[in-house]
Each structure stands twice: as C-alpha cells, then as structure tokens.
Amino acid sequence: MTALPxxxxxxxxxxxxxxxxxxxxxxxxxxWLESQSKESLAGSSLVASMPDISEFTNFSLAQWxxxxxxxxxxxxxxxxxxxxxxxxxxxxxxxxxWVDKAYLVQKAAEQEGLALLWHKIVCRVxxxxxxxxxxxxxxxxxxxxxxxxxxxxxxxxxxIPELGEKTWVRGMGLENCLMIANFIATxxxxxxxxxxxxxxxxxxxxxxxxxxxxxxxxxSPKRAEKARHLxxxxxxxxxxx
Length: 241
Prior knowledge:
241 residues; alpha/beta; Rossmann fold; nine-stranded mixed beta sheet; two-stranded antiparallel ribbon
C-alpha cells in the first residue's frame, strides 16, 4: 500500500464515549482498522466516505488512486460476512480527467470478493445545472460478502433528489444518513455501525436514531468531539449540535 501522508498519521490519542452508546476514537482510521479483524467487529456493518486527492498534497493522481483502492479494500476486509459496507463518494474532475470513485471502490470489492447490493445516486445540485470541480451527483454504494436482497418490496429509490441538511461541507446529508442507517437496522442483523473517517458524526447520529450502536474514527480532535455529541431532532428534519 502506498504510504499515508504525514497529515493522516494520527495516533489514537483520545477515546471518547457518549451516553447514547456511541464511541469515537480520535485516531488514524487505517491504523485503527489494521488493529481490527472481522471477528473483533462481529455484529457490525461499516460505512465510509474516504478523502479525495485534495487532502493529499504530496501525492500524484496515480498514488492517490492506489491509496483509495487499497483503503477501500482494507475497509471491506474488516466487514463481517453477514454485514454490509456502504461507501458515500463524490467523483472529482482533476487536471482534465474525470475520476470515478465508484469504479475504484468496485475494483476493491472484486478483489475482496464482495457483491454489489445496490448503487444509488444522490443529486448535489438540481438536474440540468452544469458543475465544474465536481459532478452534480454523489454515489452511495452497498456491498456484502453473504447478504443478498431478494425482497423487492423493500426497494427504495435509486436516484435521491436532495442531499438533505449537512453539518459541514463534506457531510453526507441528513436524508442520506437516515437512509443508510435505516437500511442497516432493518435489512441486516448488525447492531453496530462502524465509520472510519467519521467527520462530524452525522452517520453516527443517524445510527443512534435507529437504535444502533456507533463507533467512529476521526483524526481531527475538533471533529471527533463534535461527532460525540451530534444528534438529530425528534422530527428527523435537523441536526442538534
């Protein structure tokens, strides 16, 4: 695996736990994941939104692609066989090249032997509006080693018209977080959601709302502290920090 940039090499210097059954480690996500196994994460499903090349100042595009694919593979390798792993990713346009993160994630899934369960598109801007630095949509992609979806009556929309309210620029959006948490709560046997690169904890808050235990790993002490406390309002329409 290509070496991680120095700004991502954070030790697990703080552990935080909230009364909601949520745990947040202030640590480097890769170091934390490498210390785990499928057995230690039994009963879990994983969710990740991995950083793009803008956060890797010393990497070429080829180096970042290698890092991204290897990191996706590491996350999948720690996902229990009876759980799922969900990726939320936005493509980038870099030096005239369209970088398809869904393709990179699916390369990792093929390597790790996971099947694609669903691939949803969420609109970042209204249809018909041109964008430049990033495409007008993001991917939400779900994989599993053993789970298969046969009950078509439980299907949900594949094109999601709005992100929902975000807590910060890289947030996943409230509607997306609730959709992912609800899927894990209702269509898997998982009781815990593990999120490397958890940011400000929006997915962890949604998991708590659906009765799931949450484990987050975030290198920024400020974001990790916010991830510990963030909750969703009772009407499921806004964040409470």
